[in-house]
Design a protein that fits this description.
alpha+beta, about 80 residues
Length: about 80
């Protein structure tokens, strides 16, 4: 599962995760550090297993929880219209 931001959406890393700016709607979306790891890895072409491995290596979370959270994040990004389906 790779991810591609729409052309009018920008991802900016912050000290506390990341921010997505939807220039079309003028809205900001904040990602926590785990969401930032997931988004950056997916945008770089990583797959679900790669993202889950990165999250479980850096954070105290099970593979099942990391995968569920990843799927929830991708669903939210799609519903918000920030990524190309």
């Amino acid at each position: 599962m790779s991810l591609r931001l729409r052309d009018d959406v920008t991802l900016v890393a912050t000290d506390y995760g990341a921010v997505l700016l939807d220039e079309r709607a003028g809205r900001y979306f904040q990602l926590n550090p785990t969401g930032r790891v997931a988004a950056e890895r997916l945008l770089a072409g990583g797959d679900t297993d790669d993202v889950v491995a990165a999250i479980t290596a850096e954070y105290d979370v099970t593979e099942e929880r990391a995968q569920a959270d990843l799927l929830a994040l991708v669903g939210q990004l799609r519903r918000a219209g920030l990524v190309d389906a």
